[in-house]
């Protein structure tokens, strides 16, 4: 079943993601994808995650299609202007890519080439509009395409925005993204189900599919790092303590993920699991939650 | 106002090294107000250059504005006596002087930073990118093209933390500032408007005002 079919079927969705590394060695990444391919509805491939120069998303998406996986092509506006974005989308289509996650992208200063020229010619909202236009057989300038794609466009939202202004802005932008054609949303990592529930209540009438983000906690240090440095991610102290006191840290991390996914089953339409190299833990987690 | 900072002294030394007689020219408007190239900084820089190299002849002057030809003209009588002009104007002023005296090396003593304001003593912030299509009327008087690190036009990214930009904790998230301003002004509806795509200006910019051109006057 393709991701689009899964989305339209109304089933509880499960997606995961892989992040291409720096260099041409893809053995590990393909192995990770292979471990989870029969358990998930789609696999995202990140686009120069955290603004670090890496192997590209499009090539890896294409390799995943060769393995029978339906990839979600993450496309940020950081590095390409409107010409390159549209061209890469068409290129992705002819290489078998059917789903696109439209993102603004981190600023280059966060990565390993901090003084690179940031592009941001379009943003996540206008990129979604462009996707719709390409799907309709036109480019952004209104020129006719000879052969049009039929992408399933998606977007992201950050339910953990840390103040009223930030959250209102997230929700307003989410509405714009839906209007611009986003058919599904994957969220930033969620650790606090109460906050997530409040967020889901606010977007209740939005008529879209929300996949709650699950980031596997690999260590106490990682939890503290994210609390300090990753916008919208907040790992509550009791969770950190659970992890700290556990003898089997990996098991404790999996238990946390199981708890969160179970809670999300009644709140949203799917989960997006970011395993960060712990892909082998995804099947037992899904077994435990019955997905 | 245009904001600039003096270049590192070592770089200025390198620039003026080939020349013995230097005319150091300050600028009396923006550069004086931002304490980068006014009479005070001209004196200071001349002193610093002389203390390193006693053989140099450095004469000082400050024009009201180096970006206006009528003031650049006033340098005409002086420049003949010097091997180079060291300008303490913004890049605009340096180029105006260079275009008026094409046979003299005109050297920039400053690094031009941006169009901005003095936020507090000793701190300046960028406010305008001169993008050619002002939208301040629907952003609460806060420019997202300039003050959002990504120049986003359709709302905040998800990168802000505690109201600060992901680029640096010393920069507020412009979109949160816009949100507060519009809320205060009862104009939050502007945030829900149709998404905008920017038509970026073509550089180098050129403004032609037919009504001011002599040939069209009756």
Basic shape of chain B: elongated
Total separate domains of chain B: 2
Alpha plus pi helix count of chain B: 8
What is the helical fraction of chain A, as a range of percent?
A: 40-55%
The secondary-structure element order of chain A is: HEHEHEHEHEHEHEHHHEH
**Mean residue pLDDT of chain A:** 97
User: Order of SSEs of chain B, N→C?
Assistant: EHEHHEHHEHEEEHEEH
Query: What is the topology, as strand order, of the major beta sheet of chain A?
Result: 1-2-3-4-5-6-7-8
For this structure, the quaternary state is: heterodimer
Query: How much of the sequence of chain B is in beta strands?
Result: 15-25%
Largest sheet of chain B: 4 strands, parallel
Shape of chain A: globular
Question: Low-confidence spans of chain A: pLDDT under 50, at least 5 residues?
Answer: none
Helix content of chain B: 25-40%
Q: How many β-strand stretches of chain A?
A: 8
CATH topology of chain A: TIM Barrel
Please give the alpha-carbon distance between the first and last residues of chain A. Answer: 15 Å
Radius of gyration of chain A: 18 Å
Task: Determine and state the CATH class of chain A.
Answer: Alpha Beta
Describe the protein's architecture and organization.
- The complex is a heterodimer of chains A (291) and B (218).
- Chain A has 291 residues and is an alpha/beta fold.
- Chain A has a single domain (3-289), classed as TIM Barrel, CATH 3.20.20.
- Chain A contains 11 helices and 8 strands.
- Chain A has helices spanning 3-9, 27-36, 57-66, 82-94, 124-135, 164-179, 193-202, 220-229, 237-245, 249-264, 282-289, and strands at 13-18, 42-45, 71-76, 99-103, 152-157, 184-189, 209-215, 270-274.
- The longest helix of chain A is centred in the middle third of the chain and has 16 residues, at 164-179.
- Chain A is globular, with a radius of gyration of 18 Å.
- The model of chain A has no long low-confidence stretch (mean pLDDT 97).
- By secondary structure, chain B is α/β, with parallel strands linked by helices.
- Chain B has 2 domains: 2-113, 3-Layer(aba) Sandwich (Rossmann fold); 131-218, no CATH class.
- Chain B has helices spanning 9-16, 30-33, 39-52, 69-72, 76-79, 91-100, 144-147, 174-184, and strands at residues 2-6, 21-27, 57-63, 84-88, 106-108, 110-120, 123-128, 164-165, 168-172.
- A 4-stranded parallel beta sheet of chain B has the order 3-2-4-5, with helices on both faces. A 3-stranded antiparallel beta sheet of chain B has the order 1-6-7. Chain B has a two-stranded antiparallel ribbon with strand order 8-9.
- The longest helix of chain B is centred in the N-terminal third of the chain and has 14 residues, at 39-52.
- The mean pLDDT of chain B is 95.
- Chain A binds chain B through residues 82, 104-107, 109-110, 118, 120-126, 129, 140, 156-158, 161-163, 165-166, 168-170, 172-173, 175-176, 180, 188, 231-232, and chain B through 149-163, 166-168, 173, 175-176, 179-180, 191-192, 195-198, 200.
């Amino acid at each position: 079943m393709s991701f689009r079919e899964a989305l339209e079927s109304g089933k509880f969705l499960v997606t995961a993601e892989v992040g291409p590394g720096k260099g041409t060695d893809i053995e590990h990444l393909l192995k990770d994808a292979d471990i989870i391919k029969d358990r998930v509805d789609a696999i995202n491939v990140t686009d120069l995650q955290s603004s670090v120069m890496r192997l590209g998303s499009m090539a890896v998406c294409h390799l995943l299609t060769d393995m029978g996986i339906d990839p979600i092509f993450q496309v940020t506006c950081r590095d390409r202007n409107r010409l390159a974005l549209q061209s890469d989308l068409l290129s992705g289509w002819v290489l078998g890519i059917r789903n696109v996650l439209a993102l603004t992208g981190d600023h280059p200063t966060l990565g390993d080439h901090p003084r690179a020229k940031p592009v941001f010619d379009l943003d996540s909202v206008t990129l979604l509009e462009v996707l719709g236009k390409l799907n309709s057989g036109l480019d952004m300038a209104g020129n006719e395409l000879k052969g049009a794609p039929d992408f399933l466009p998606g977007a992201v939202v950050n339910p953990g925005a840390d103040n009223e202004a930030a959250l209102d802005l997230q929700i307003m932008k989410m509405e714009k993204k839906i209007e611009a054609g986003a058919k599904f949303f994957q969220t930033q990592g969620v650790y606090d189900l109460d906050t997530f529930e409040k967020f889901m209540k606010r977007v209740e009438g939005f008529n879209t599919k929300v996949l709650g983000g699950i980031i596997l906690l690999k260590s106490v240090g990682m939890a503290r790092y994210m609390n300090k440095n990753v916008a919208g991610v907040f790992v509550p102290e009791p969770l950190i303590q659970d992890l700290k006191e556990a003898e089997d840290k990996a098991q404790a991390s999996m238990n946390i993920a199981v708890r969160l996914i179970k809670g999300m089953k009644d709140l949203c339409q799917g989960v997006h699991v970011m395993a960060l190299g712990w892909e082998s833990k995804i099947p037992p987690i899904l077994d435990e939650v019955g997905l | 106002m245009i904001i600039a900072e003096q270049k590192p002294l070592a770089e200025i030394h390198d620039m003026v090294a080939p020349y013995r007689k230097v005319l150091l020219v300050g600028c009396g408007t923006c550069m004086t107000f931002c304490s980068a190239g006014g009479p005070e900084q001209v004196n200071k820089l001349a002193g610093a250059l002389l203390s390193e190299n006693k053989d140099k002849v450095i004469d000082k002057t400050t024009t009201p504005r180096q970006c206006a030809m009528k003031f650049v003209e006033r340098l005409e009588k002086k420049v003949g006596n010097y091997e180079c002009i060291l300008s303490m104007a913004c890049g605009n002023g340096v180029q105006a002087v260079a275009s008026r005296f094409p046979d003299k090396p005109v050297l920039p003593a400053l690094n031009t930073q941006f169009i901005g304001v003095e936020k507090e003593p000793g701190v300046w912030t960028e406010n305008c990118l001169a993008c050619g299509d002002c939208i301040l009327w629907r952003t609460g008087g806060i420019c997202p093209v300039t003050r959002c690190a990504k120049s986003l036009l359709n709302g905040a990214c998800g990168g802000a933390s505690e109201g600060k930009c992901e680029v640096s904790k010393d920069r507020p998230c412009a979109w949160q500032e816009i949100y507060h301003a519009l809320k205060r002004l009862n104009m939050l509806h502007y945030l829900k408007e149709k998404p905008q795509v920017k038509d970026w200006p073509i550089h180098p910019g050129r403004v032609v005002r037919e009504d001011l051109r002599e040939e069209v006057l009756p």
